[in-house]
Amino acid sequence: MTDVDTQSEDRHTLLVVDDDTDLLASYQKVLRRAGYGVLLAESGTEAFDLMRRHNPSIVLTDIRMPRMDGVTLLREITTNFPDTIVIIMTAFGTVARAVETMKEGAFDFLTKPFSADQLLEVVRRAEYRANVIRRNRDLHEDLGGLCDSDIIVGQSPAMRALFVHIRTAAQSNGSVLVLGESGTGKELVARAVHSNSSRKAGPFVALNCGALPDHLVESELFGHEKGAFTGAHESRPGLLTTANNGVFFLDEIGDLPLHLQSKLLRALEERRVRRVGGRTETEFDVRVISATNRNIDEMVN
């Protein structure tokens, strides 16, 4: 059984699944009057086929159905359509099972029999959640993936402006300085620039300039040869060469010791580095992104 209504552009399509055709007709009538587009299915198998063809935003499904029950359908939906919101409909005797489905990804559940008002209330809450998901997806597409939830999330005006800055920086190959207080996510910004740039296939290598003693910072930057200093039991490449063809992130650049600043500048200008205790130079190609919570202008002046 398939029945598809046309909904207005600002409303979501709902899929209602129940093996009781009388109940399906009742749900459809209530939802139509509220302005929703409705898909109807009498089994989980039929419902999953409609999911593939129409991709509704919200699914209301009974638990007990032949062939594919509501719990199995829920699992299939959360696996294959993770943005879809699922509401479980259940008889009183299966309330405990319905509660368990919340742990498996269900948005909410309705206990039969329920009123039209109860149905519309839970659907409206699901619709609000679906709108949030839709806005985040649209923002993700508009900004080319910069608001990827694995990197940075947000849709406020300030965050939108930040995404624009990230996109602009990602399109160039120049050095970047990220300013901000501790804990504001400066490294996340650096990683977002890297992952959206032409160097995204290359490594992202980070160094906190204020977290190590001076002699270890030099060794981390440039590498060292075996025996170059006490404890140098083996040769090691520096992070500048490790980051070759990628991004080198200098966190808290304002804490880099003065005597290393000129050495680092020369290495970056010449694109060559010599390990501590070494005689030969190694070429490298990195993009530098730096970050600090200090006022660089005041420090320079």
User: How would a textbook summarize the main sheet?
Assistant: 5 strands, parallel
Strand order of the largest sheet: 2-1-3-4-5
CATH superfamily of the largest domain: P-loop containing nucleotide triphosphate hydrolases
Supply the number of helical segments.
11
Distance between the termini: 76 Å
Number of domains: 2
Describe the protein's architecture and organization.
This protein has 301 residues and is an alpha/beta fold. The chain folds into two domains: 13-142, Rossmann fold; 157-300, P-loop containing nucleotide triphosphate hydrolases (Rossmann fold, 3-Layer(aba) Sandwich). The chain is 42% helix and 18% strand. The chain has eleven helices and 13 strands. The chain has a five-stranded parallel sheet, sandwiched between helices. Strands 6-13-10-7 form a four-stranded parallel sheet. The chain has a two-stranded antiparallel ribbon with strand order 8-9. Strand 11 (272-274) and strand 12 form a beta hairpin. Helix 2 runs parallel beside helix 3.
